[in-house]
Amino acid sequence: MANYKFILSGGGTGGHIYPAIAIANELKAQFPDAEFLFVGAKDKMEMQKVPQAGYEIKGLWIAGLQRKLTLQNLMFPLKLATSLLESRRIIRQFKPNVVIGTGGFASGPLLQAAGGAGIPTVIQEQNSFPGITNKLLSKKANAICVAYENLERFFPKEKIILTGNPVRQDLIDIDSKRDEAIAFYGLDPDKKTLLVLGGSLGARRVNQLIEKELQSFLAQDVQIIWQCGKLYFEDYKKHAQQNVRVVDFIERMDFVYAAADVIISRAGASSVSELCIVGKPVIFIPSPNVAEDHQTKNAQAIVEAKGAILLKESELDSQFSIVFEALVKDHGKQKQLSDNIKKLAMPNATKVIVDQIKKLL
Q1: Which of 32, 170, 195, 204 has its CA 20 to 30 A from that of 285?
Q2: SS3 category, 262
């Protein structure tokens, strides 16, 4: 068997990093002698998370364009030129067989350089509405693995393969872990458990909502696992008590999903894909502060299949308590949402993506 070499690039948020790690793990399982290198953006979270997963990473001096005129934006052409040169050097030295991009700023110059050197490239697009980096890269990419239908309007149709998003394989069978998960968090097995997910960094508006509704949840006999994000942990850890667990980051996602009866979540693409596999009733509160409002579009794709509830941030004050209370009391509605969201799951996404990569070898 040839000693293959793979470069993976994706970062900025967990939604780009974890799919890249999942793909690398599957490639490693199939090619135990392969060599792997990750490329990320300096001082972004991938510089910690990738080495924790056991892979080497190099950082590029790159950042995204801000939406207003800033010093960062004036520096962008210089950062881009530097990152392109560095990407070419990395590719010359490492000599990869295939380069895989999962989104984020660093994947732009890296895949551009790989394409220029004639090395096959694969894009993995998590969202229902692609970012600008992947739209630009798609013209030269050999294969574009997507998680949603109808992306022909953004990408060349003949290159699109519907695969779903890579998710952690330990989420496939969470029902068997409920007792262990409840014990792990010291929760009451007879109470309903609400899981609140704000993304790896946290979500200010979601945290404000949970703080405001805390007494109402407890009055409804609901206990809470509240992932407030590392940016907000110092502000909200004071709310921890017997029926409220406040955490900044979750290492064991399988446990929190197993413990949950109802979930409140942002609608980043990786979270949505995981929630389809987990199959619990979800209230999505999309972030309005992301490019092209893609979180709302991700959530709407689930809502249209009657698989979740969507509340915009602007509706929280007037609607949230009514919607939440109705859902917690209505077991039929909970079951309907669970059954419908599960139908949208694509649990074999990682293997299907790796099959596409193998074709290019």
Answers
A1: 170
A2: strand
DSSP string, 298-343: HHHHHHTTT--EE--GGGHHHHHHHHHHHHHH-HHHHHHHHHHHHT
Rounded to 5 degrees, φ, ψ at 87 are: -65, -40
Give the SS3 label for residue 60: strand
Strand order, beta sheet including 160-162: 57-60, 35-41, 5-9, 98-101, 121-125, 143-146, 160-162
CATH 3.40.50.2000 in the chain is located at: 5-165+348-360, 170-342
Residue whose pair of structure tokens reads 């801000």 in the numeric block: 66
CB 165 within 8 A of CB 235: no
Per residue in 211-224, pLDDT tens? 999 999 999 999 99
Candidates 241, 236, 344; CA nearest to 300 is: 344
* Cβ atoms 168, 254 nearer than 8 A: yes
Which residue positions form the known binding site?
13-15, 127, 168, 200, 250, 295
For 222-245, write each residue's pLDDT tens digit.
Answer: 999 999 998 999 999 999 999 999
Q: What distance in Å separates the CA atoms of residue 33 and residue 3, rounded to the nearest whole number? A: 6
Q: Tell me the Cα Rg of the chain.
A: 21
Write the class of the CATH domain 5-165+348-360: alpha beta
Is 60 in contact with 86 (CB distance < 8 Å)? yes
The conformation of residue 163, written as its DSSP 8-state character, comes to: -
CATH topology (fold) of 170-342: Rossmann fold (3.40.50)
- Alpha carbon distance 323, 194 (integer Å): 14
Which residues define the annotated binding site for UDP-N-acetyl-alpha-D-glucosamine? 13-15, 127, 168, 200, 250, 295
- Report the predicted TM-score, pTM, of the whole model to 2 decimal places: 0.83
Report the run of H or E that residue 223 belongs to, with start and end.
strand 222-227
> Cα separations (Å) of 266 from 96, 222, 275?
35, 20, 11
